[in-house]
Amino acid sequence: MNTDDTFTTRIVHHIRSAAAFDPLPATPPRDMAAAYALQDGVAGALMNDGAYGPVAGWKIAANSKALLARFRLDEPCSGRVFSAQRRDSPAVLQAQDYRQFALEPEIAAVMGETLRPQDAPFDTARVMGAVARFIPSMELLDMRGCDMSAVHLPDAIAQNISNAGAVLGGPGIAADRLDPATVRTTLRVNGELRHDVTGAAPQHPLEAVTWLANHLAARGLTLEPGQVVLCGTHSPIWYHEGKGTFELEMSGLGTVMLQLE
Which of 43, 154, 193, 260 could form a disulfide with 95 if both were Cys (CB 3.0 to 4.6 A apart)? Predict the structure, then answer.
């Protein structure tokens, strides 16, 4: 077994068991190409596990100007969302299933057409035609003790950037009608308003999906109809311990409901 296989096996075990985040650092430190190669291997193993299943979407991370600068990146980064962890609102989940639960409110794109590597590069006009609609969503995270402010980002990418699924709401809005600058995002936790911000998308969601489509194409991957793209958080990572109810509303897009029992 080579070193990459060893890392893949250990990462898969840690994710399945909700073990504390271990960056499993490489020497020399792994670069982005090595990180995505590991993520591909991890995803291949998890897809054969009924608790995860096939890839049902993608997340985009670190796509604000501030985070790109903090991590010294030229572009954002991506991870998978697995089908068994993709849920429609209202969703009921078990708090005990997470080592360190967190969520992020995000606009998500629902894809309506295929974007294949052989058809790249894609511009925003082509991608707009491929997006069926934009909807409100909560990205679910199990941080497992990962300190994103201090982590070597390729180590987090290798472990799918802490994604533990998504809850999708609606009804949504057509791609050509979305104006993210006017979208008001409110998050209520146990009925109490905890976050209220307008125009907080880290970048225009259409630009985010365009970046992802070209990024995946460069890796030989296809963005498929029915898949969702989480287009970046409208708040810092929102941590929560124990049970709770969460209601997200995005003006013009709709609502998302989650209950942790």
Answer: 260
Positive or negative: CA dihedral 18, 21, 26, 30: positive
The residue with tokens 């070193």 is 3
Amino acid 4: pLDDT:
78
Cα 202 from chain centre: 13
Closest C-alpha among 111, 109, 38 to residue 79: 38
- What residue spans of the chain are helical by DSSP H? 3-17, 32-46, 65-70, 124-130, 153-158, 205-218
pTM score over 0.85: yes
Distance CA 123, CA 211 (A): 9
**What DSSP string runs through 132-145?**
EEEEEEEEEEE-TT
Instruction: Determine the angle formed by the axes of helices 3-17 and 32-46, rounding to 10 degrees.
Output: 60
Pairing of strands 244-250, 184-189: antiparallel
Which residues does residue 131 pair with via DSSP β-bridges, in sequence order? 111
Residue indicated by tokens 């650092």: 25
Contact 250/187 with Cβ under 8 angstroms? no
Start-to-end C-alpha separation, the chain: 41
Catalogue the long-range contacts made by 221-225 (C-beta closer than 8 Å, 24 or more residues apart): 221/117, 222/114, 222/115, 222/116, 222/117, 223/58, 223/111, 223/114, 223/115, 223/130, 224/111, 224/114, 225/111, 225/112, 225/113, 225/114, 225/132
- CA dihedral 240→242→243→246, nearest 10 degrees, is 0
* pLDDT, position 203: 97
Helix (H) or strand (E) holding 179: none
Question: Which token pair is 221?
Answer: 């991957």
